[in-house]
Specification:
The protein is mainly alpha-helical and 464 residues long. It has 18 helices and six strands. Strands 3-2-4-5 form a four-stranded parallel sheet, with helices on both faces. A two-stranded antiparallel sheet has the order 1-6. Helix 17 links the parallel strand 4 (418-422) and strand 5 (437-441). It is globular and about 65 Å long.
Length: 464
């Protein structure tokens, strides 16, 4: 069930993540040129509404369609999304997420049905006209059928959100957001759910608190600071570096393993997140666009004029509360990272002593390893950092010719021989790349598996 939820969440966020640059461009234009912006300009401010209502939904629909059926799927997804764009007066992000993939699936099924029936020389004619005709039909269906459905969904969501906002209960959202982040659903929550709500709010009032609910780096920072004081072993020694990567680099996945080492720390991040949201709501602050990655630098860049104090206050309060809750939990439970790692190593050694080696592993010459893939949920944050660390270690050991790339766990390259990923993503990685050997880690910064892999290669052995 967790794997299915992760896959669905990844699919939703996968339509938004590649287009974050466009969202940031729209957010900057909004922050600068709307009447309450830094440099109000009527002509340039006219860009805000068309970008939100047309450009961004089109990009989402194209990306969703291309995930299902490549460029052809992207094109028909963009065509059909014009139905929901024209048929509604609000930005149709949810409509684009629905129409884009479904349209691509329809054309994909059509192509499969007629693939062997097209006469030689008529391929281009059939492909172009089928795309045009089916695209036109789907656009009309989207206009007449999908728009009313999405508008009902929007009203239901707005009523639900309004219930919490009006009653000052929005901090309770942390009860769901923070645990879901630890299960690597952070991108799905931020870009699949909160961003569409936030963009509609920006259209109305020029800013949105929804962009701060998941992106706030305060809760994770508080936990990492507690590890600096009360952690043990590698968890304590790696925490300062993780703070820099999390707070400045914006890679929130870096602190997830620290929570998984001691699940009681969920109380800390939930308390910190709720406290931060309370301050954000109390001071009436928000961002003009999604802050991605969730770096304090990105958060401040998307903060509108007059909102810096409130944003920084919310982040600070979230950090302090998370730290104050996490510190006694760490001291009283006495858990760090070394105990779990040692237990896993002992278990592995015990299995090896009995000859219970993993069946799918086989020994090959080290020179046969040409490609290693580091996979994470979105393929942009922790995987990019992990690939950089591993690449440097391999180069220092004389294996600079081995290609090391980063990738989303749902779309690992087919030619990957070794895949390095977090243990929570094991099932998804195995499904995405069944032929590759999986190396599972728990700590992105100080994973002993990096050095073990290098040593294996040095000994003229590699796992495939």
């Amino acid at each position: 069930m967790k794997e299915k939820v992760q896959v669905f969440g990844r699919f939703l966020s996968g339509m938004v993540m590649p287009n974050i640059g466009a969202f940031i461009a729209w957010g900057l234009i909004t922050a600068l040129f709307i009447p309450t912006g830094w440099y109000p300009n009527e002509a340039l401010g006219a860009l805000v509404s068309p970008m939100a209502s047309m450009l961004l939904p089109l990009l989402i629909a194209y990306t969703g369609g291309s995930v299902v059926y490549g460029q052809r799927g992207g094109v028909i997804g963009a065509i059909a999304s014009m139905g929901v764009i024209v048929g509604s007066g609000v930005p149709m992000f949810i409509g684009a997420m629905i129409v884009g993939p479904i349209s691509a699936w329809v054309i994909k099924q059509f192509d499969r049905k007629i693939e062997s029936r097209i006469p030689a020389g008529f391929e281009m004619l059939v492909n172009n006209f089928s795309l045009g005709i089916i695209g036109a039909i789907l656009t009309v269906i989207a206009l007449k059928g999908v728009v009313p459905f999405v508008e009902v969904m929007n009203r239901v969501m707005e009523s639900g959100v309004g219930f919490f906002v009006d009653r000052k209960l929005l901090p309770l959202a942390s009860i769901f957001i923070e645990p879901a982040k630890i299960l690597f659903l952070n991108n799905a929550i931020n870009h699949g759910i909160l961003s569409p709500l936030g963009i509609q709010q920006v259209e109305e009032i020029g800013k949105s608190i929804f962009f701060l609910l998941e992106a706030n780096p305060g809760p994770g920072l508080g936990v990492l600071l507690a590890y600096c004081l009360a952690g043990k072993g590698s968890a304590k020694s790696s925490a300062p570096g993780a703070i820099i990567i999390h707070f400045l680099g914006g890679i929130h996945e870096i602190y997830f393993p620290y929570i998984l080492m001691n699940p009681l720390l969920l109380l800390a991040v939930v308390s910190g997140g709720a406290s931060g949201i309370f301050v954000f709501q109390l001071l009436g602050v928000g961002l003009t666009s999604p802050a991605s990655p969730g770096s304090i630098l990105a958060v401040l860049a998307m903060t509108p004029r007059g909102g810096y104090f409130g944003v920084l206050a919310g982040v600070t309060v979230a950090t302090v509360v998370s730290f104050l809750v996490a510190l006694p939990l760490l001291r009283f439970t006495g858990k760090g990272g070394d105990l779990e790692e040692s237990a896993e190593k002992v278990k592995q050694m015990k299995q090896e002593s009995k000859g219970n080696q993993t069946a799918e592993k086989k020994v090959i010459p080290a020179g046969s390893v040409k490609k290693i893939v580091f996979a994470c949920d979105a393929g942009m944050g922790s995987s990019a950092m992990g690939a950089t660390i591993l690449k440097k270690k391999l180069a220092a050991a004389g294996f600079g010719d081995i290609e090391v790339v980063h990738s989303p766990v749902s779309s690992i390259p087919k030619d990957a021989q070794i895949v390095v990923t977090h243990k929570e993503l094991k099932e998804r990685a195995a499904h995405s790349s069944p032929e590759a050997e999986l190396i599972l880690i728990t700590n992105f910064m100080a994973a002993p598996e990096y050095d073990e892999l290098v040593e294996t290669l040095k000994n003229k052995q590699a796992y495939l």
